[in-house]
Amino acid sequence: MSFKYNKSLPKIHLDSIADLKYLSINFNKTIQEKLKKHIPKNVSNNSEDILRKKVEDILENFATKTFELAKPNIIINGIEAQKTIVDDYVLEPFDYDLNNKLQSLHNEIEETILKTTQLRREIPKRIFEHESDQNISEIKINLPEISLIETIKTKQIVEPKLERENEIKEEYTNAISIMKQLKTARIPFHKRNS
Questions:
Q1: How far apart (Å, rounded) are the C-alpha atoms in residues 113 and 102?
Q2: Per DSSP, what are the bridge partners of residue 76?
Q3: What SS3 class is residue 134?
Q4: pLDDT tens digits, residue range 125-139?
Q5: Is 113 exposed, middle or buried (0-12, 13-18, 19+ CB in 10 A)?
Q6: Residue 135 exposed, middle or buried by CB count within 10 Å (0-12, 13-18, 19+)
Q7: 158 within some domain
Q8: Distance of alpha carbon 67 from alpha carbon 89, whole angstroms
Q9: Which of 7, 8, 45, 127 has fewest C-beta within 10 Å?
Q10: How many domains does the chain fold into?
Q11: Range of the domain at 40
Q12: pLDDT per residue over 140-171, tens digit each?
């Protein structure tokens, strides 16, 4: 079906193909709503379902042809709609080489995952075995003033210096004296009213 249009008439300007799809979806939705209203589905009577099916097919063809005929009069983002719209139903032939490549990549991913999980199990064991094999003499303990060997020979215990040692002792003695006062103080006894 050919349709001639006047080129001097203004065209419909849309921002994107999504706008055209939005209009198409809403147009089809409105058609379906009107169809439900005027020819409701009837399960018991098959003849009405045949009629409804024919009307649905006619309306679907009408909607498709309407938008096909409107394409020359639509500009999408400055480009004619016929040049920008590609049919959604174009299928590419099945590519066996691409499928084989996909399968090999998938297998490679699975092998990598298996290796990773195996290493997650083995590495901690190896580290533990390596640490347990080390000699105790290799382990160094650093004390601030006196070395470990000198401490063992002289049997001297190194006590760390506290920054607020005097202040802590004073707070401790105050707390003990307050506890003694509370112990000797008389606490009033209250009876409950039953």
A1: 17
A2: 14, 79
A3: coil
A4: 777 776 666 554 454
A5: exposed
A6: exposed
A7: no
A8: 16
A9: 8
A10: 1
A11: 12-84
A12: 444 445 555 555 555 555 566 677 788 888 99
